[in-house]
Amino acid sequence: MTNDLEPLAPETARQMYLDERRHELADATLQSHDYRLEQFVQWCESEEINNLNDFSARDIHRFRVKRRNEDELATASMKGQLATLRVFLRFCVSVDAVQSGLDEKIILPTTTAADARDELLSKDRAQKILDHLERYRYARLEHALFEVLWHTGLRIGAATGIDVEDYDPDDQYLALVHRPNTGTSLKNGSKSERLVALNERVCRVLDDWLAVNHPRVVDDYGRTPLFATKRNRLSRNRGRTIAYQYTRPCIYENDCPHNRDIEECEARPTEYAHKCPSALSPHPVRRGSITHHLQSDTPERIVSDRMDVGIDVLERHYDQRSAREKLEQRRRYLPDE
């Protein structure tokens, strides 16, 4: 250990980093950094690394191998994990917690367009999940949330920021409003504000959720959230947990494609649902919804406006239609003569 360094615990460093960047990063980005660094801190605890002064390039390698092999991170996810770790270590260098230049030892994996969009919830799988929720959790929080996420392709942060008054049951739409001063913001600020149309099925579930099961709580700013627990507005972390929980195949099919004993599986408890290899976070749900809209002949411009995603990003990261599918869809718009 170098004498110039000052002892700093990983968890303390994580909190210092998040506090430092809280006013620089969008809420969704800060949330992602928080989640990724939580994985890093947990790994440090398991390896008994209590002081970052002792953290080395070999530890970076061991963490990378663990996340890639044991946690089975996809290339795109690994790139995000390591990119966050690199800027975190750069911060740690600035506060004399790790050796200068340690952040430069992190080499990010090269990703392709295929890597960026390799995980998505398919239409068939989404329907099985929705059928399960309608049968066993009808008009409860999980059901209402999943119906909206799949039908609209909303980001989880946008969904959790919706208030009851933002839902219009008569004209059947949700109003997306940027409210950074009262705890909820949209990824692209006021540019993300829009009205999102809903269908009859989603409105029926939302109406019954509000009439029967909604807890009628207000958040810390006196607002009534559309998606709420018994105590407060649904958090993004809890929303992610719901996605992980109900995308496990054993929940909606009572079968495990990984040949695990369902009752003994480590991912069986809700808090460990993310450990299921088939469990998906809300973003693959969004990606699947966008892909489904495109495959259903919804014009790209409509999908772009509805899902708040640029055409270039839509094509690069979300559009999983084959060249043949695109050809046949374009053909249907050609005149007969």
TrEMBL record:
DNA-binding as a keyword of this entry, yes or no, is: yes
Q: Which GO terms describe its biological process?
A: DNA integration; DNA recombination
- One GO MF term: DNA binding
* Residue span(s) of domain Tyr recombinase: 116-332
Which Pfam families does the UniProt record give?
Phage_int_SAM_1, Phage_integrase
Statement: the UniProt record of this protein carries the keyword DNA-binding:
yes
Domain Core-binding (CB), first and last residues per copy: 8-93
> Which UniProt keywords are listed?
DNA integration, DNA recombination, DNA-binding
Question: Gene3D superfamilies recorded for this chain?
Answer: 1.10.150.130, Intergrase catalytic core
Source domain of life: Archaea
Q: What is this protein called?
A: Integrase family protein
